[in-house]
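Re: weekly structure request thread

Next one in the queue (427 aa):
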Amino acid sequence: MAKRKPHLNIVFVGHVDHGKSTTVGRLLYDSGNIDEVTLRKLKETAEELGKGGFEFAFVMDQLKEERERGVTIDLSHKKFSTQKFDFTIIDAPGHRDFIKNMITGASQADACVLVIGSEGIQAQTREHAFLTKTLGVSQIIVACNKMDLVNYDQAKFEALKKDIVQLLKVSGWKNADQTVVIPIASYPGENIAKKPTKMPWYTGPTLLEAIDNLKEPEKPTQLPLRLPLQDVYNIQGIGVVPVGRVETGVMKVGDKVIVVPAREGKGITGEVKTIEMHHEAVQEAEPGDNVGFNVRGIEKKDIARGDVLGKTDSPPPIVTEFTANIIVMNHPTVITVGYTPVFHIHTAQVACQVTEIVKKINPATGETLQEHPDFIKNGDAAVVKIKPMQPLVIEKQKDNPQLARFAVRDSGQTVAAGMCIDYVKKA
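Done, posted below.
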């Protein structure tokens, strides 16, 4: 079997109409990941819809409504290979109404490209710079698009670059000064995969080179084993086969493991007999691996999606209450004490109640704005106390970021996102 290239999830974010989808489409085309015929068809469709110039965007914007309105509504995923990596590109919406999908995208991403038009930093640019940081994206590239609209003016680019570095600093990005900021013009294809012809003053990498210079995310193998269950099957001749993705640590055949909270809320133990990945038996699995496995001593009725497997010597914590930093993005009214939406944490979906709004904070700096406010609303960041309505596994951001992040959903939309900073462990 050929050695697989490292895999990275990369999300493209930015204000509406700053050219994210066009940038992605152009990148896929110029790097040979989509062909001439596909692009020609998209160009015809664009012109029929009176959207000439949108053909690159249509590569990602599959929905009919998106094509007619010319905005990205849902997340699109596209595979994309470079010399160094296999990427999954997530094109995230910039439009205000669609921020919930952007959150889902950012929470899955290892790196992000923030696309900013030549008109400069907008409200959503700020929101995306902050959200990607809060949701655990660790690497950022900034692409200053539409340089063709300012005649490829170096002074305009340098001024925008200064603003961007400042924005990243207040959003909590460390080493903001070292961020790669790239001038591009996606529609004419300047500086995407080929060296620019209109910007002789620019000596840095193309967008494609910058993406290929990203660091491979470190696999958190040194953390305790955590594997949230996605499903549990009964397979004839093998028995119970739970499946899921290893988030942290390493799972080996022969490990003594515990699955919590499990049916009784106390956890259930067993020993790993077999591990299978892509239908092949393996001796061990590490972070990022999707596996099916069989555990001696565990029945199908004992465990379910949302339970988390760990080793018996470092079991995942079951909590009765937790404290979290949250950002409210998309709530129809206001959030007060007593509010009980569904929290999506790893593979678990559990109703949780807000028991205290500790304080409202400045999302950019973390400083306290107001102690114990009566409510929080869209745009607010806050520290809150939360009580799950049933046993739940969650970890602190500083101990295990992979199991600390969550999204809050209500009536079919994501209303908030956040991360756990402290908890009360079940006695």
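DSSP finds eight helices and 23 strands in the chain. The CA atoms of residues 343 and 349 lie 6 Å apart.
Next request, please.
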